Amino acid sequence: MVGCDIAGDGVPLVWLHGYPLDRTLWAPQLAAALPGVRQVAPDLPGFGGSARLPERSFDAWADWVAALLDALAIERCILGGLSMGGYLAFACWRRHPSRIRALVLADTRAGQDSAEARARREENQRLLETQGVGALAERLLPGMVGRTTRRERPEVPAALDAMMRRADPAAVGDAREALIGRDDSAPSLPTITVPTLVLCGDEDALTPLAESRALADAIPGARLAVVPQAGHCSNLEQPAVFNALLSEFLVATIRTHPT
User: Fold this and answer.
1) In the chain, where do the E strands start and end?
2) What is the pLDDT of residue 122?
3) What are the beta bridge partners of residue 16?
4) Is the predicted pLDDT of residue 214 greater than 90, yes or no?
5) Cis peptide before 190 (omega within 30 of 0)
6) DSSP string of 106-122?
C-alpha cells in the first residue's frame, strides 16, 4: 500500500519528503504548473498512506522507490528530495542509478550524522516513546522553518506541526533507525553524472548554506540555487521562488537531456 499524489504530464518527477513529514509537504509544487513534468509525490514507508517496511534502512527504501517506479511504469525519473528525502535520493543513486535522469536536492547533506546529531536523535526517540509524537513535533518545529517564516507566515509552521502530529510513531522510529544507520554518501558524489540542482533556504539552520555549497561543489556540474527568506522547508516557506528556480532547471534539463 502506497499513498501517492500525481499531477501534470510529461517527464516523471518523483518527490521524496523529509522527516517526520508526509507527501503533503509537496503540495505547493503539485499545485503549480511546473513545465514538462508529471509530478509523483509518495508517502515514504510508514508515513501517511504507505505501509511500513520490515527493514529499516535507506537501501531498503531505495529498492522500494525502484519498485514504485516499476508499478507506475516509470523507466527513468527526475528524483527530488528534501532533507531525509535527499539522503534517500543518494541511496537511490548508489543502488539504482539507471533509473535517475536528474536530481533535485533541497536542504540536505551527504555526510553521516555527527556524534552530537546521533545523541539528539536518541533523545528525540525517548521523547517520542515517553510523551508521544506531539511532544516530538513541538521540539522539532523551531528548526523546520526560518525566522522570516516564523514571523510572517505562521500558517507554514502550523501546517508542518499538523503533518508531524499525524505521523505514525512506529514509522517515526523506523525512520530514526534509517537515519542513524545511513551510509556516508560523500564518496559517491563525484560519481553523479546526471544534471543536479541543489536548493537551500538562506535561513536554514539544520543544513546551512555552506553545506549546500559544498554539496554542489562536490557533484560534477551541479548548480546551487538559494531560496531567500526560507529555512529548512524552503519549498513550503517560499514556494513561488522555489518553483521558479526549479522550473528554470527543469526546462534546461529536459531540453538538453531529452531522454
Assistant:
1) 4-8, 11-16, 37-42, 77-82, 100-106, 196-201, 223-227
2) 85
3) 81
4) yes
5) no
6) ES--SSPPPHHHHHHHH
How much is the average pLDDT of 97-105?
Answer: 98
Residue with cell 508529471: 38
Cα 111 to Cα 184, 190, 208: the distances in Å are 5, 14, 13
Domain holding 187, by residue range, is: 4-256
pLDDT at 256: 85
183 phi and psi angles, rounded to 5 deg: -75, 155
To the nearest 10°, the Cα dihedral for 236, 240, 242, 243? 110
Listed residue (86, 66, 104, 69) closest to 18, CA to CA: 86
Q: How confident is the model at residue 258 (pLDDT cuts 50, 70, 90)?
A: low
Q: What is the pTM of this model?
A: 0.96
* Type of residue at 109: R
> Edge-to-edge strand order for the sheet containing 223-227?
4-8, 37-42, 11-16, 77-82, 100-106, 196-201, 223-227
The domain tally of the chain equals 1
164 pLDDT higher than 80? yes
CATH of residue 249's domain is: 3.40.50.1820
pLDDT at position 89, please?
Answer: 98
At 231 the three-state DSSP class reads coil
